[in-house]
Amino acid sequence: MNLPQTWAEAFNRMRPPCATETWVPIRYVQADTFCWFCGAEIPRAKPGTRTGERGTKAWLCRERGVCECMPCRSRAKEAGL
């Protein structure tokens, strides 16, 4: 897998193009998936029943149908994307 080196390159690779982009935090990942930016695996998970297990697992862009891991989306938010 040839991973993007910059946010601009990653953004340009996303298909299909869309006018708006909304990232929402998701607590439940139904199947193992990969972060579209860094390629890190986001393992299948569900919200736990104990305190401390109910946090966000990933970020989802519904318009594009891709997920991002927590570190990548945090860096993107810091960069203003």
Q: What would the keywords be for this entry?
A:
81 residues, alpha+beta, three-stranded antiparallel beta sheet, two-stranded antiparallel sheet, 2 helices, 5 strands, globular
Distance between the termini: 23 Å
Rounded average pLDDT: 78
Low-confidence stretches: none
> How many H/I helices?
2
Structural class: alpha+beta
Strand share of the residues? 15-25%
Q: Helicity range of the residues? A: 10-25%
How would you describe what is shown here?
- The chain is of the alpha+beta class.
- The protein has one domain.
- The protein is 21% helix and 19% strand.
- The protein is built from 2 helices and 5 strands; from the N terminus they run H-E-E-E-E-E-H.
- The chain has helices at residues 7-13, 70-79; strands spanning 23-26, 33-34, 41-42, 58-61, 66-68.
- A 3-stranded antiparallel sheet has the order 1-4-5. Strands 2-3 form a two-stranded antiparallel ribbon.
- Strand 4 and strand 5 (66-68) form a beta hairpin.
- The protein starts with 6 loop residues before the first helix and ends with a helix.
- The relative contact order is 0.24.
Brief summary:
The protein is of the alpha+beta class and 81 residues long. Helices cover 21% and strands 19% of the residues.
Task: Draw up the topology in text.
Layout: H1 7-13, E1 23-26, E2 33-34, E3 41-42, E4 58-61, E5 66-68, H2 70-79
Antiparallel strand pairs: 1-4, 2-3, 4-5
